[in-house]
Amino acid sequence: MFSAQCVFGRCVNVGVFATVPRCSRGLSAAAASQVKTINKSDSRKPSAQVSSQILHIRPVGFCFNPDTALDNKFSQSMDHRYNLRELQAKVMQESDIFVNALASKGVKVLAGSGVPETPDAVFPNNWFSSHSIEEQLQGGTSRFILYPMTSPSRQIEKRPEIIRLIVHHLHLRQSELIDLSYFEKQGKFLEGTGACCFDRVNKVVYVNLSTRAHAEVAHQLAKLINYDLVTFRAFDENSDPIYHTNVMMSVGTSFCILCEDSIKDLMQREHVKRSLESSGKTIIPISFAQMRKYCGNTLELLFGDGSGRTFLATSVTAFDNFTADQKTEILRHVDEILPIDVTTIETVGGGSVRCMIGELYA
Known about the structure:
It is a single chain. The protein is built from twelve helices and 15 strands. It has a three-stranded mixed beta sheet, with helices on both faces. A three-stranded mixed beta sheet has the order 3-4-5, with no helix packed on it. It has a three-stranded mixed beta sheet with strand order 6-7-8, with helices on both faces. It is α/β, with parallel strands linked by helices.
């Protein structure tokens, strides 16, 4: 289990901090032909929602994880198709495709590497979140948060050398780090931006409560970062709980891709929709079938050219399953849709492009 040591030279825990009052190839030929790029000469102020720098962890040790697959219905073994060596070669190739695709948009990729004991390390967004100085000035107490992870094999992803890499890159001070990992000993979890979808513009965090998202931890987080909290419970078409919020919703600057039908309680559904709409978000509904194809597991990112333009990072699978009308609507809110081929990673790992991105906010 992770212990918050060797980062600043001594242990860090949440008790130190005061709480605040408020609680190679990226595109298939077919996909490339459908991508619409809008070139704008004017420079726009970047939205607080988006970042142009990320953490990516190379999938060393990647394989089907039967432990996490217990409640991740998206994860499927491909042992019938690849032996372990072939599988790992394939996902390393997809990692290269992913990095090159984002770099082509000027995104700065801070790269780390997994170890054989961490089969899901390619999904670093689950164990940390980063927050901007601007957010901190608006009442938050932290710029970097570590989260309690459900599976022991995932808890060890919070390796001191990777944390140091982020800390040095963002020039963080000890007072800007909060570690919620102590909840792991209580059997209470909240898996980062897998569990939490942040509306950073309006300071609202959306959390689908599940075995990987405990209400108590979510309330503690919202209090610490001075966000309003909206909780609900989401289920798939078979009434099985959905393990992570970020497979059924994606919050952008002015839009939200949402599998509305997964929120079966109608009062909760209307509460989520009212919160989004009152925050100025256009809701782009997706079906259960589209959710299964990772249409909800997307992320708006900032071009690294200083233009203020944004794009939606998505997998080729998701891109191919959006309708033409949905793509048109998305392109009213972003300047480009970027499909990336991570088919093996998303099939075996049960997470797609969004899960592979740990946003870094300066």
